[in-house]
Amino acid sequence: MTSKTTDPIHHLRTLPEYPEGTRVAGNDSRFWAAKNPNGDLCVFIDCIQNNTVFDLGEILPSILLHADQLRASRGIFTLTESTLAEKFLTVFVAIANEAQAIPDSDICNHIKHEILEWSAFLSPRRAGITDEKLRGLWGELYVLNEFICGRFSPRETLYTYVGIHDEPQDLSGSNFSIEVKTTISRAPSTIAISSLEQLDANCPAQLLVLLTLVGSDVGRSISELVDEVISELESDVSSAMQFRKLVYEALDGATEAQLGEKFESTGLTAWNVASDFPALKRSDVPNAIQTAKYTIALHLLSDFLMAGEIGDWVDGHRAS
């Protein structure tokens, strides 16, 4: 259950009618939330200078920016789709908490830009993503939740998840990195490596992890994994907000069925990517070769199997 200390919009659950408002963030007095007489939610910015220029009108199909003709210092962002109320307020809490350095003259244009950056969260596309991408993200979030969350601060956890930025590795700390692969085969014979950089991390220790997934009613969906990670991060509002933004960008396009599809990890194997691990690395190939994808035979990796638990491995290398 979400508490007041972890719910970023708990103070906005009950709002006064415009022109009164409730302050959105404690560290920026320019952002105020209210309800219009017709029930639509709005957030108004009370700092607009006379010479400020910004475009009015639609930002997203359900979010409009307009002026208050009686109060020239205000710009009003109005939500016209009530089902997005919590997302709308969550986004404005995130924006307000990070906007202190933005001058009054730029604030409305800054907010418009940020709303567009949050569009995957506010108005996600639902055309579908590949099953491979869905399972890959599920695996990354599973390992993040099981072995990184709780061991690191919320901000460190956010920074560790470099795969969300399409980096070659999925998880990376100061002394380690982890590359996560998933399979639905009960007896996989190979593992696919998608680049020369993937097993060539610039750190003392790297782990290659393979998760075997099966569809299961008692498993967890990717939406549930996202919620679990957010609950671990919510003691730091900024980190939790940033994670929301990034993960919904990564999941943009996933259908509701895909977001709700449950998987269970029935097997986890990990290998130490030592200096003699059979991998192609950037330094091993001619400069003329720009990219390479290859597969590794799993039955030839027995000498590199990790002994012990991944959590212990992370603890050992983060302290070194």
Q: How many helix segments?
A: 9
Structural class: alpha+beta
Taken as a percent bin, the fraction of beta residues is: 15-25%
Supply the number of structural domains. 2
Inertia-based shape: elongated
* Major β-sheet strand ordering: 1-2-3-6-5-4
Helix percent band: 25-40%
- H and E order: EEEEEEHHHHHEEEEHHHEEH
User: How would a textbook summarize the main sheet?
Assistant: 6 strands, antiparallel
Mean pLDDT, to the nearest integer, reads 93
Q: What's the assembly state of these chains?
A: single chain
| Unreliable sequence segments | none
Task: Please provide the count of β strands.
Answer: 12
Instruction: Tell me the Rg in angstroms.
Output: 23 Å
N-to-C CA distance: 37 Å
How does this structure look, described?
The chain has helices spanning 85-97, 107-117, 119-122, 131-148, 154-160, 222-233, 237-250, 256-260, 310-318; strands at residues 22-25, 28-35, 41-46, 57-60, 63-67, 74-79, 171-172, 176-183, 190-193, 205-221, 262-272, 294-297. With 320 residues, it is of the alpha+beta class. The chain folds into two domains: 10-122, no CATH class; 131-318, no CATH class. The strands form three sheets. Strands 1-2-3-6-5-4 form a six-stranded antiparallel β-sheet, covered by helices on one side. It has a four-stranded mixed β-sheet with strand order 7-8-10-11. Strands 9-12 form a two-stranded antiparallel sheet. Helix 1 (85-97) packs across helix 7, helix 4 packs parallel to helix 6 and helix 6 packs antiparallel against helix 7 (237-250).
